[in-house]
Amino acid sequence: MLYPSIFNDNFVDDLFDEMFNFPYTTSAKVQNKEIGRMTTDVREFDDKYELQMELPGYDKSEIKAELENGYLTVSAEKDDTKEEKDENGKYIRKERYYGKQQRRFYVGEDVKQEDISAEFVNGVLKLNVPKVETKPEVEEKKYISIEG
Asked: In the chain, where are the structural domains located?
């Protein structure tokens, strides 16, 4: 049996959720830990930012990264079905899991998608985002024309 955490705000909710669900399902927190929480480390270098995102249990084909309006969005979607049958076709066990996670980071509107590089090795997605200096807008002095 899973025990509630005294460090969470929802101590009582955890206690009663586990009591009523056990042994039929596990809590969402445990399911989330099985697949991962998209834990991200961000490092700053002179010329770039490096994001290392943990995505255990995912394949490269289940991960998408896109850049839109200055926001880098990384999403991961898992659809896992396990099915076992005996000789007569009766179900011995049938399990399903579907989950989708997403994180967004503001990287600036001057960053272009082709400048971002990504690699996925051993459950860790590594993204390199270049630092782009924003050009300050030059304020033009505009005068009101005076007729006379």
From this structure: 1-35, 36-130
